[in-house]
Amino acid sequence: MRAIILAAGRGMRLQQAEEDQLPKCLLRFGGMSLLERHLNLLKAVGVDDVVLALGFRHELVEAELDRLGWQPRPEIVLNPGFELGSVLTVHTVADAITGGRDVLLMDADVLYDIRIAHALTAGAPVNRVLMDRDFEPGDEPVKVCVRDGVPIELRKQLAGDLQFDAIGESVGFFRFDEPGARRLAELVQGYVALDGGTKPHEEAVRDLIRERTQIIEVSDVTGAPWIEIDFPNDVARAAHDVLPLLQPLTGEE
User: Alpha-carbon distance 27 to 21, whole Å?
Assistant: First the structure.
């Protein structure tokens, strides 16, 4: 199994001072960067084949890997067009996506519990979306809608007449088997050919869900603590509300 961590963006919504701007994967909680947590959690569930898709201030992320001395060292793929949509970042790692075995596609800016890592990686090869039914309504969360046990929609804004049995927030982590990964790469390539890759990568995942060419399952992780860090108040919530609920990792202060 291969994990691809998307960490190319600038994170403008965090409103960091320009001279202090960091890639979000370098934000630290409990004395540990989000990147180090990702690597620890992946190792704990048996995943040590890791690809980092980098862009903004990538040299700082590489310096963090040097500091950690992590082995095996993750492969680094740079997206020079990181200011565009994340679908372009996914396109830059197309070889890693289509290189065989199951692929985990993971946002870098998530603080999460090991139960979520287990939910993502458990079992035989599969296409899988994670969903948390306990979420705050609004236009910001990417919603997963489920009908008859399968996902039918993945978007921030939903059609008013959409019929579903369950709804939750996407954690921002996806798993694809080999056929699913190949088809995702094709969809991503189509977006890049269309407009240069200005869309979020979730649009390509949404297309994969809606075209029904692959069997995709939903894993409900409601109750497992996690938070995606986009805004300044998310940093505070991560430190004060989510971090204390996580299973401690080796090396935490």
Answer: 10
Tell me if 37 sits within 8 A of 109, measured CB to CB: no
The tokens describing 186, both together, are 């094709």
**Dihedral sign from CA coordinates of 185, 38, 128, 46:** positive
Neighbour count for residue 23 (Cβ, 10 Å)? 27
Per-residue 3-state assignment (H helix, E strand, C coil) for the chain: CEEEEEECCCCHHHCCCHHHCCCHHHCEECCEEHHHHHHHHHHHCCCCEEEEEECCCHHHHHHHHHHHCCCCCCEEEECCCCCCCHHHHHHHCHHHHCCCCCEEEEECCEEECHHHHHHHHCCCCCEEEEEECCCCCCCCCCEEEEECCEEEEEECCCCCCCCCCEEEEEEEEEEECHHHHHHHHHHHHHHHHHHCCCCCCHHHHHHHHHHCCCCEEEEECCCCCEEECCCHHHHHHHHHHHHHHCCCCCCCC
Q: Give dist(CA 70, CA 61) in Å, integer.
A: 12
Q: For residue 236, give every residue at least 6 positions away whose Cβ sits within 8 Å of its Cβ, in sequence order, or none.
A: none
Question: Average pLDDT of the chain?
Answer: 94
* CA distance linking residue 135 with residue 34, whole number of Å: 22
pLDDT at site 251: 56
- pLDDT tens-digit profile of 203-246? 999 999 999 999 999 999 999 999 999 999 999 999 999 999 99
Closest CA to 73 of 83, 62, 81, 82: 62
Residue type, 97: I
